[in-house]
Every structure is written in structure tokens, then in C-alpha cells.
Amino acid sequence: MAIGGRTAARRTTDVPLTHDETRTARLGLRRRQRRAFMLVVPLLVFLLLAFLAPIGSMLYRSAYNPTVANLIPGTLVALRTWDGQSVPDRDVLTAMAADLRRLALSRESGRLAAEINRTYPGASSTINAAARGLRRVDEAEIASAGADTLLGANERWSDPRFWRAIRRAGANFTADYYLTALDLERDASGAVKSRESAQIYRQLYGKTLGMALTITVLCVLLGYPLAYHMANAPARRANLMMVLVLLPFWTSLLVRTTAWIALLQTNGVMNSTLMSLGLISEPFELLYTRNATIIAMTHILLPFMILPLYSVMRGIDPSYMRAAMSLGARPLGAFARIYLPMTMPGLSAGALLVFIISVGYYITPALVGGTDGQMISNIIAFHMQQSNNWELAAALGSLLLLVIVALYWLYDRLVGASNIKLG
Amino acid sequence: MSEWASLRFQNVKKSYDQKTMVVQGFDLDVAKGEFLTLLGPSGSGKTTVLMMLAGFEDVTSGEIILDGEPLTRTAPWRRNIGMVFQNYALFPHMSVGDNLAYPLKLRNMPRAEVTKRVEEHLELVELGDFAKRYPGQLSGGQRQRVALARALIFEPSIVLMDEPLGALDKKLREQMQFEITRLHQRLGFTVIYVTHDQTEALTMSDRIAVFNEGVVQQCASPSDLYERPANAFVANFIGENNMIGGTAERIDDGKATVRLASGATVTAQASGLHGPGPCVLSVRPEKLYVQPTAHAYDNEAPARFLVRHYVGDFIRYFFELGDGSEVAVKALNDPSAPTLAEGQDVTLAWLSQDGFAFPPPGAPQNAPAPLTNETEEELSR
Q1: Secondary structure letter of residue A173 according to DSSP
Q2: Does B55 touch chain A (CB under 8 A)?
Q3: Where are the alpha helices (DSSP H) in A48-159?
Q4: How far apart are CA A413 and CA A416, in angstroms?
Q5: Is A415 near chain B, with CB under 8 Å?
Q6: How many structural domains compose chain A?
Q7: Domain boundary among A133, A154, A172
Q8: Under an 8 A CB cutoff, do A327 and B103 touch?
Q9: Which of residues 73-112 of B touch A (CB under 8 A)?
Q10: CA-to-CA separations, A87 to A131, A316, B104, in angstroms, rounded
Q11: Are residues A134 and A223 in the same domain?
Q12: Looking at the complex, does the CB of residue A4 fall below 8 Å from at least one CB of chain B?
């Protein structure tokens, strides 16, 4: 006996439309599209100005460095025909001498020396000395004897490696900031190698990702059982608990972080309680450590884990667990094989949110983290505000963006981004 | 196939709040291979009985015995009871094949055997090509059949169905009723079926237990239930019924002489009446006739025609008796259907065997039973 023999629904057939009908239909469609577009225009403009433009400018700044190109334009034009192996010909040397004289007169030779020194250590004194020497030479003399003056000033001016460094520094676009951000540098011949001095940033990226992962795992461990309890509680109790979960959201972030300072400091609430209970004899060093950052951020980011989990769990009927048990599964097995996979969309959404937010977190590590608890954003802020190396800050920020995009891609490959559910 | 089991409920009681009984002393024997339906309005305790049987709710007192073995202390996952849920409860992240294989894998069945069984059971519900699909890609009726196959595949001792057709539209529901009956007849499994849809219960069941307020009002075959209701609740709940107020004047050998509130005196079958006193007379609308007809009936009452509702296959007429109470009459939509003018005085006639005189509803027998000492002890343990 065939089941499912329902009468097939009649399909609408293609009826040819007259010219006027087609036109009216097309106009109606256009009108709807135009109205939809008008509704999102303000947001688009806002996004463009407040979001896309700054990110674009950051990416641009991290690679764009026209300082040297603006300082010695004549030399760089002359260098275009240079083969890169031999001593540059007289035209190049003459152009360099003219540029250096101009810079010396406008007191800008120091900037050039500093820029080139980055790619060729020791270049600073060579350039400054040459510039000082050329200052007193007049323009006509430069054209005839500038090249010889340079060659006589220092043997570096006849070294192709030195000229290669100048040419590299003169490029408008450079990967040098990215190399610095990855603790790499170029040696004098231009090959990329690990920086011999302090390895700061790679270690910092590792620490940041490690801390973000720890915070995410802690949020899952704390948030999952609570979300489960809330999802299965009577509506009134669930609502009350939801208010308690959301309460931190309504308090200023700064206030919450400051409260953690009061709790964690050497003579703070946590230590004095533990000591008065006789559990410890000396106060823990909690504040201004990595653990302080992890504790405070777990507390602050916990709602981001609970909310998507709760909304997904709320939609899971108890009959699924019952079905699994009636089929012979023990509660733990049913949880692992049925319930957990069904909450995966909420779990991934929450974990991704917490992880990505904590990778870029700034205020809490800055306040409670000390030197040990600093994350990558604190270093970016340092380069923005104190060392004034915006290009390096931009490169560090771009790398952070890249890391997050890469992690998201990995997540998409492993779990599937379409699996995310926020509510 | 597997050995299907018999089932016995012994004075099973359930209380959630330690004050009132949701199920009050449920006794029932279910034979091997029987299709038994628990029917009742929502909140009548029928689903609670099912949940206790499946092990998702504790039994407050009493015992459930499955094939001679007490069941109430057994964990749900050891009971080996198949269950079909109203929302199907198919695992959305598993394919249809994996859904069916899940209970078999839990029983450590060899892989080849699992594959074979899954195929067999998909064939059984005529979904042979659907093993790779996911529940989200199936229609309501197909999901229902997968749920059915999953509840049968691990050879459970009995199969429970909790309003399994509630989410389907009318056409599909009828189709699935037929399908479940067909499988039941072919495989002979024991079914406990919960529904609030009486048509479903009447068409599918061997026996129906009608629940109200935690008490089984009557447990009988569909035709007995319809034609010989045990009390006013069953008479009113199953099918349509006219409930006419009156007084029993005499009860004689199962026959009651009833004086209706409108004044007419009629005879009816006495049910649960122990002596003269107030009663309700129940007569089904299709057993009432508007005189004159070609047949003779031993009960008659004068009435005035109010209005008629055209339903299609039949017509429903509404009449008013002398005391203002309303009576409905159902007549087939054929040339014999009476033509009446509004306000016209007629005589309604019926056979005395089609009328039942019950004690009025709400009489003491249906009052919720207070907790006995014994069950209170059970609760406080």
C-alpha cells in the first residue's frame, strides 16, 4: 500500500504577460528595491566612515612608508636604472649628493639617516657626516664634483649593499613593520631572519591566544551548566536568573574591573577571607598577574557565553533526552551523543564570541594585569600612545585581524559557520 | 520478531505536589499484542501514566508489572520500551539511518546486523531510500514513520505512543492511523497509545481507557464505549450527546422511568442509578427522529424547532423542549431529511434502548479522592 499518495499540488503555470503588465511588475520590483536600499543607507554610511575606513587606513598605514621616498626623490629616480650589483654610476652619486645637500640645508638629513639606519645599521653616521660635508658645497660644484666628494667621504658610498639598503628604504610600500611585528628583521643583504634582540611579539601573540583560550574554556565550564539549569527551570525562576546574568551588562565595565582590583589585591577581600579562614598563611599575589586578567575577564565575558547557550537550550524539548533514554542510552551517553551536539550551535557561537572579544580586550588587562597579564592590544595601545610608532601598531593590529580571520576559517572548516546560532 | 509483552498496572497513583493525586489508583491489564488507548481531556492524567510507564516519572504508589516483572525500580534505559513522541524527537544531527541505528549500537549489535535491520525497518515504513536524509529534510508524515520505525527497531517489549499524530493535518493523520494499524496487525506489538482525539481512539484501538481527573471512567472496546457509556462523562466525552435533565421515578430491572424537566415521561436504560432521584437522560443526536417516520418508537417528547445547521453529509437540527433545554438531532442529508419551519411544533421520538439515565455529573463518585494514610507515607519517604 503506497502511502504519501497525496494529490500533487497544482503548479502555477507560466502565463505570458503583456508588455504593460511586465512594465508594471518591473517598476514595482524596482520601487521595493529602492525603498529597501534607502532604509539601510544610513547604516551603510556609518559603517563606511566608522568601520571600513579606519580598518582600511590601518591596513594601508601598516605597509605604507613614504618618508624616504619624499626625502630623496632624485636619487631614487636615478637608482631605477641601477643593476644592483656594481657601484652605482655617477648620475646616482650626483643625485644623492644634491639630495643630501638640500636635506642638510633644510635640517632634514637626520630623519633620512634614522630611516636608513633601520635597514642598514651604522648608516646613520655615514649619512650625517656626508650631509655635513655637502652643506658648504654650492650647487654648481655638486653637479661636477658631488660624486667624488661622496666617494671620498666614506667607503660605504661605493658598497653596493649600502645602496641596496637605500633603495629598499626608499620604497613606498614596505613589509618591515610586519617583520618587526613578527620578531623578524632583514640582515644587511636583505634576507629575512629572526631578530636576535628581544623576541617580544610572537611570544605576546602566543600568550594572548593562550589566555583567550583559557578564558573561553572557563566560560564554557561555568556557563554551560548554568545555561542548562536556566533552560530547564520554570519560566519565573529562569527570568530572575536571566536578570542576574545580565546585571553585569548594566554596570560600567570600569566599575566591574575596579571591583576586581578591590577583591584581588594583596589585602583585598579574597586574601583576607582566605587568611582569616586559616587556609593560607601569606596573601596570594593575585592582582597584577596573568591570573587576575583571566579571572576578571572570565567574569566579564560570561554573559556572552550564557546567552546563546541559553537560547539554544531553551529550544531543545526534553523529549530528545527522553527518546535517547527510551532507546537505551544512559544519561551521560545521551548527553554526549544527543544533547551536546544539539547545543553545538549555541556553544560555538558563545565560544567564538568570548574568544574573539578576549583576544582583542584592552581595558581589563590594562587595569588588573600588571606586566605579566598584558595582552596584544595593550602593546598596540602602547605603540599608538607612547612610542608613537603608529605603523608598527597598525601592523600588529592587522596581524591580530589576520589571526582572527584564520581562526574563523579554521572553525568554519571544522564545525561549519552556518552552525552558529545566537538566538 | 520479538516477543511482545503483557502489562499490568496495580493501583498506580501519582502526585506531583504531595497534595492532590494526578492519577488515582489506576488498575489495568493489557494483553499481549493489544492496542490500548488512553483517552481523555488534557490534564486528565493519561500522559502521566505513560511517563510512569516509560520511567520518566516516579510512581508515587502501586506497581507496574511488565511480563510478570515489577518495573517501577528499573531505570528508563533498561526498560526496553519503545516510545513515539508527539514532536517525533528525531535527533536532528543524525541521518535517518543513524537515528534508527542508534538504539542498536547502544546494544552493541554487530555492524552488518545493524545495517540489515535499519534497511528492513525503513522498508517496513516504506522509506527505503531515505537512510541518508536528515530529519529536517522530511515531511511531517515521513518523520512520523521514522519515529515509528525507531521505536520498533530494537524489539522493545511494548510500544508507547504519546499523541503521535497530533502535529499532522487531518488527511495525513487519517493516513497514518491506517499505517499504524497496519503495522500493528502485521507485527502484533503491544501498544499503549495516548490521545485526546476520540475519532483516532475509536478507529485504532482494541480497547480504550477513558480518563478524567486522574480516574479511569470506563475501559472498554470502542463500540461498547460508544453504545454503552458507563457514566455521564463518557457519554458526553465520546461523540455528541444530548444531556437532558430529569428525575428517575422508578427503576425496574435496569429500566428507568424518567420524568423529563419538560414534563414528558420516557423510559431509558439505567446506568449507575441506584434509586429514584435526579438524573440526566442522554440520547445521541443520530438516534433521535422527527415524527412522523415510517417506524414506531417507544419514547416521545414534544419540541419546537429552532434552527438547522447544514454540515454536508448530514444536517443538524436544534430543538427546544418545554423547559427551554436544547436538543440536537442529526439526520442524513438525503430526501428523508425533514423540512421544518422556524418555531414549528414537532414530536421527537427514540427507542428506549438508545436512552441512558445517569446520575447527574459531579455526583460524589467522581470527586477527587483525598490522600489515604498509606499514600501519604509513600510520599513522605
Answers
A1: B
A2: yes
A3: 53-63, 67-71, 73-79, 90-105, 109-119, 123-135, 139-153
A4: 6
A5: no
A6: 2
A7: A172
A8: yes
A9: 76-83, 85-87, 89, 91-93, 102-103, 106-107
A10: 20, 76, 82
A11: no
A12: yes
Measured CA to CA, the distance from residue B171 to residue A247 in angstroms comes to 50
Do residues A330 and A377 share a domain? yes
Residues B294-352 have pLDDT tens digits of 788 889 899 999 999 999 899 999 999 988 889 999 998 888 788 888 889 999 999 99
* Residue listed under C-alpha cell 628583521: A185
Q: Which residues of B are less than 8 Å from A315 in CB distance? A: none
Contact criterion met (CB < 8 Å) for A327 and B89: no
Residue whose C-alpha cell reads 472498554 in the numeric block: B220
- Partner A contacted by B16 (CB < 8 A): no
pTM, rounded to two decimals: 0.77
Q: Which has the higher per-residue pLDDT, B253 or A212?
A: A212
Residue B257 has pLDDT above 70, yes or no: yes
pLDDT tens digits, one per residue of B20-32? 888 888 899 999 9
Amino acid at the residue B122:
L
How many CB pairs below 8 A link A and B?
Answer: 75
Instruction: Flag whether A388 is in a domain.
Output: yes
Burial of B34 from C-beta contacts in 10 A (0-12 / 13-18 / 19+): buried
Note the pLDDT of residue B303. Answer: 93
Question: What pLDDT, in 10s, does the model give residues B34-75?
Answer: 999 999 988 888 889 999 999 999 999 999 999 888 998 999
**Contact across the interface for B77 and A330, Cβ inside 8 Å:** yes
Element (H, E) at B309: strand B299-310
> What is the amino acid identity at position B248?
A
Q: Is the Cβ pair B145, A3 closer than 8 Å?
A: yes
Range of the domain at A311: 201-419
Q: Residue A110: CB partners within 8 Å, gap ≥ 6?
A: A128
A312/B contact by beta carbon, under 8 A: no
DSSP letter at A78? H
Q: Which domains does chain B have, with CATH numbers?
A: 7-227 (3.40.50.300), 232-360 (2.40.50.140)
Examine the pLDDT at A39 and tell me if it is beyond 90: yes
Mark yes or no for CB contact B87/A338 under 8 Å: no
As a whole number of angstroms, the distance between CA B221 and CA B237 comes to 15
